[in-house]
Amino acid sequence: MRLPNRTDYAIRASLELAANPDTALTVAALAKSQLIPVRYLGAIMTQLRKAGIVIARRGPDGGYVLAKPATKIMVADVIRAVDGALTEVGGARPENLSYSGASAGLAQVWIAIRAAERQILDQVSLAAVVSGKLPKSVIALLKSSQA
Fold it and tell me: Name one GO cellular component term (predicted).
């Protein structure tokens, strides 16, 4: 799995907000705490706001906060907010691909990869990452010889 920097930045900024639930954090504060280039983070936060992941508060104590509890926001939600659907091939969903000849079964491989990603990313909340209390199924994968 390859994640663009913007996706990594979005997840890290969201985790910082999850770790500070009672404080609105500015783009500058988020960028500084997570070592993210501030010039990219503003646009990322706008995407997260439009997707309903964060809320922007105005005023002297303004900044961003999570739109709902960190236990209700999954890592997959953040990825989808800034990067679209999980596992696309050339911008298409795997089930919409048509291969022929020796490649005929390839779409099913992409679909299986998407299912595996979902099994992890749709069950790991921001709160779980911040607390270090990952789901048992994820911990089992970490202990796997294939990790």
Answer: cytosol
| Alpha carbons 120 and 147: distance in angstroms, whole number | 13
Query: At which residue do the structure tokens 């099913």 appear?
Result: 108
Please count the other Cβ atoms lying within 10 Å of the Cβ belonging to residue 106.
Answer: 13
> Where are the domains positioned within the chain?
5-142
The topology under which CATH files domain 5-142 is Arc Repressor Mutant, subunit A (1.10.10)
Which stretches of the chain drop beneath a pLDDT of 50? none
pLDDT score recorded for residue 28:
97
Q: E-assigned strands of the chain?
A: 54-57, 63-66
**Residues 6 or more apart from 23 whose CB is under 8 A from it?**
63, 65
Q: What is the pTM of this model?
A: 0.89
Give residue 85's pLDDT: 78
At position 14, the amino acid (one-letter code) is S
